[in-house]
Design brief:
The complex is a heterodimer of chains A (228) and B (166). In chain A, 21% of the residues lie in helices and 37% in strands. Chain A has 228 residues and is α+β, with helices and mostly antiparallel strands. Chain A folds into two domains: 31 residues; 186 residues, OB fold (Dihydrolipoamide Acetyltransferase, E2P) (Beta Barrel). Chain A starts with a helix and ends in a 19-residue tail after the last helix. With 166 residues, chain B is an alpha/beta fold. Chain B has one domain: Collagenase (Catalytic Domain) (3-Layer(aba) Sandwich), CATH 3.40.390.10. Chain B has five helices and six strands. In chain B, strands 3-2-4-6-5 form a five-stranded mixed sheet. In chain B, helix 2 packs across helix 4. The chains are: A alpha+beta (228), B alpha/beta (166). The interface between A and B is large, with 65 and 65 residues. Strand 1 of chain A pairs parallel with strand 1 of chain B. The structure holds zinc ion.
């Protein structure tokens, strides 16, 4: 038997490549690889640093989200009042010098329109902290991956945790939920009837009926009706 | 040339067989960033109350690719700083790519069993190595902590893909 050595060479190469693809699909098949929210993501021209977490509940399941939160409510953001820089830790900078690093928490004043779980005071200005925010030098937003920073003058569903001091913290993926697009525009005209048919609110009301609880220690907010 | 056909054919059949033994062909999930230094090491500093679990998870990754993760020293400046925080919420660990920190949340880790604590440590170290979250259960990089502890096919493939970005 006589083979053309170029054809034979090609067959050998194809065979080797096929063997490699089969043995190590993740490496050789780039279409198999998925990349996260990239480091080049921008919001309003500002770079975003996405925090990578490990959660103790399924943060994609509304029944677990609602079950674990202390308060689930529909509220309008009246004002973004500032940023708290929490949990300082000493790190090394580029030159190997010790510097302090913190995590930003954005501070909001909100007005609760409707409670879904728990009983917060309605139509009063109350503060809450949301994990994520602008860096001290105003150059970077730090936000948990899959999460976003809510905007002033907009109505959202919030899933909040009461802290030991009675304050409210909203934190992580799916801790703030945007309402339907048309609900948003009705809200601007202060037409709160629209809330009754909003698909997201209906979803979280239903999730509350089927909530999945986690055994954990709870606190009561100082903005709970029972504390007034 | 001719004498090469047989070995190549055998190699090809072996890899086919190998893929059948491992039916769950992996998918790689990478972040596009990592905290690994230019010498291809991830040197950690700082401390956590879950130090034994953290050290155990360091060994898990190093058993797959030896010598990558090391404790910092005078010679090896830290690439990532570990610490503990306490916050009532639903996350157990957090890797911050800008600050180069891993923070463990005692509120959610204290009630966990050993396997789950190790899972959280290994998951966050995975992020520091450049691995992204996996949407499926049974993987260390699944976004919810679990009693899965060994590195899955996806975890390993993701690690291999992340290394290519170092
Ligand atoms: Zn994660």
């Amino acid at each position: 038997m006589k083979f053309n050595k170029y054809i034979l060479g090609s067959i050998l190469l194809i065979g080797l490549f096929a063997a490699a693809v089969i043995a190590f699909p993740g490496i050789v098949n780039p279409e198999n690889a998925s990349s996260g929210e990239t480091q080049s993501a921008m919001i309003d021209g500002i770079r975003v640093n996405y925090l990578q977490n490990s959660y103790v509940i399924d943060v994609e399941n509304p029944a677990e989200l609602v079950g674990d939160a202390d308060y689930v409510f529909v509220a309008e953001i009246e004002k973004l009042t500032g940023t708290a820089y929490r949990f300082p830790v000493m790190i090394l900078d580029e030159d190997g010098k010790e510097i302090e690093a913190t995590t930003p928490f954005t501070e909001y004043q909100v007005s609760v329109i409707q409670n879904i779980k728990g009983d917060l005071v309605l139509n009063q200005t109350i503060p809450l902290q949301k994990k994520g925010g602008i860096s001290k030098d105003n150059k970077t937003y730090t936000i948990p991956a899959g999460d976003f920073l809510p905007k002033e003058g907009t109505v959202y569903i919030f899933l909040a945790y009461a802290q030991d001091d009675g304050s409210l913290v909203v934190s992580g993926r799916n801790s703030v939920i945007e309402l339907d697009k048309d609900t948003d525009s009705e809200m601007i005209q202060k037409n709160y009837d629209r809330l009754r048919s909003d698909s997201q609110i209906l979803t979280f009301q239903k999730a509350y009926e089927n909530q999945i609880l986690r055994d954990r220690e709870h606190s009561v907010s100082i903005y709970d009706v029972s504390k007034q | 040339m001719k004498h090469l056909i047989k070995p190549i054919a055998i190699l090809f059949m072996l890899s086919l067989l190998f893929s059948m033994i491992n039916p769950a062909l992996g998918t790689a999930y990478t972040l596009g960033w990592d905290l690994v230094d230019s010498g291809k090491h991830l040197d950690w500093g700082g401390s956590t109350k879950y130090q034994n679990d953290f050290n155990y998870s360091v060994n898990t990754w190093n058993n797959y690719k030896s010598g990558v993760i090391r404790k910092d020293s005078i010679i090896y400046l830290k690439d990532v700083t570990i610490s503990d925080i306490t916050l009532k919420n639903n996350d157990a660990g957090e890797t911050d790519g800008d600050n180069k920190t891993i923070k463990f949340n005692t509120f959610n880790i204290d009630p966990m069993n050993t396997t789950r604590r190790r899972n959280v440590c290994a998951h966050e170290l995975g992020h520091a190595l450049g691995l992204n979250e996996n949407p499926n259960t049974g993987n260390t990089m699944y976004y919810k902590s679990s009693d899965t502890y060994t590195l899955s096919r996806d975890d390993k493939d993701s690690y291999n893909a992340a290394v290519l970005n170092w």
